[in-house]
Amino acid sequence: MGFLNKLGKAIMQQATGIELMYLGGHPQMTNSHKVFVNADENGVQISGGFRVLLSIPYSDIVNVSLDRANKRSLGKGAAGALIGGVLTGGIGLIAGAALGGRKKDDSVISLTVKYGDSTVDLLFGGEKVAKKYAKFTGLVRRR
Q: What is the pLDDT of residues 94-109, one digit of tens each?
């Protein structure tokens, strides 16, 4: 396969896949970095840039789950309340706290796969992970 064919295939995979942050879990992928998760008739591919880092056959996928974790920024909430209270009085205190303390989505997608005689959990995070979960499960289910 020529360079242009590889480049075209990599661009298509990135366009149809999901961009996530790989957090760890697989012995062959040791550091966290941005990846693209794609699927074809054989299984799931995890790519970094234009290179496939890991190919997982559908038969090796054991489970996929979403671990929800939301947290509210208390420091920003307190600062918003203080500024809102000073500028507009009591109602500004409440509005400033609500706007300043928005939730941050720290959810993690866990993909459990066979690895030798045991299993490992590949962990993925990033922006809007909970919203990407449905598309992710669609990719890892056997076609």
A: 545 555 555 666 889 9
- Residue-range domain boundaries for the chain: 3-59+126-140, 71-103
Q: 87-92 — which CB contacts under 8 Å span 24+ positions?
A: none
At 29 the three-state DSSP class reads coil
> What is the Cα–Cα distance from 14 to 7, expressed in whole angstroms?
11
Alpha helices in the chain (DSSP H): 3-16, 74-88, 90-100, 129-140
Per-residue pLDDT tens for 8-54? Answer: 554 544 456 899 999 999 888 878 889 999 998 899 999 987 788 99
Check if the beta carbon of residue 75 is closer than 8 Å to that of residue 41. Answer: no
